[in-house]
Predict the 3D structure of the following.
Amino acid sequence: MSSPDRANGRHDRRPPLTIYLAAPRGFCAGVDRAIQIVELALEKYGAPVYVRHEIVHNRYVVESLKAKGAIFVEELDEIPDTDAPIVFSAHGVPKAVPAAAATRRMFVLDATCPLVSKVHVEAERLYGEGREILLIGHAGHPEVIGTTGQLPQGAVHLIETVEDAMRFTPKNPDRLAVITQTTLSVDDTKEILRVLKERFPTLALPRKDDICYATTNRQDAVKKIAPHCDRMIVVGAPNSSNSLRLVEVAERAGCREAMLVQRAAEIEWPRFSGISTLGITAGASAPEVLVDEIIDAFKARFAAEVKSVTTAEEDIAFKLPRELREMPAL
């Protein structure tokens, strides 16, 4: 069928573009649960609801929740004495934080992703066995701060790179254990683990892979489409670990240039001149509305055809805190 422009005797002057849309992409079960916790708390208890740290690493989500009455703080001492709910973010918190909240008799709703909580439990179990703990992760990331903070100071050694793995000197090489941040590059982590296992054959590993299913699935989907794309856009925030890893994965998998974009207004159009194929995915904390916004921006400039490429189906959902379970889901 001819396009309306052709039917009217005009030719569509927009260059053709095939957009490969990676699936799975966007919200994971942990992010979806965390956002629901804030929204349901606002509905049940009214504003304000205080949130320690960004509930998830996405400005659009944070601003949307602010507009509904959420107040974001970095530390509990920024919160006045109040009966309002205090929500801990999806990234998890050090043990000292809930302890401080209990001292002040704060009403806490914990939105820590259950897969992050699993790593916390694993760290405590391994430490309880008398093992020295290695944590593969990124310094300063809230999840790493939270996981490190489950154990006494100095009990966890951060390993960020293969070089760190090569340099590390344990107290006892036969009493070592390793855990990982949930949002790492699968391939980078495998390489670091390979070095550690080579150096320390008795290294205790997690009972189940710590890198979460959503991180793995989104990286696999990017690997599938990246070799066919002139450019790749990852919709996500610059402080989102899993989004940054998707950019790296895309370029390693064969896309000449991948970039992180938060909103359509940020797109640097000269970088897309002359392309015929584009890959789009979204980090686990990026809502689908932002993906749609970016696709629409390309459709305004290109005669774009969107092809969804699915590598896995996701049907995981996590329970809400008991206080919110009796409420109808939003």
Observations:
- The longest helix spans residues 29-45.
- The chain has three domains: 15-27+213-310, 29-113, 115-199.
- The radius of gyration is 22 Å.
- Residues 15-27+213-310 form a domain with the Cobalt-precorrin-4 Transmethylase; domain 1 fold (CATH 3.40.1010.20).
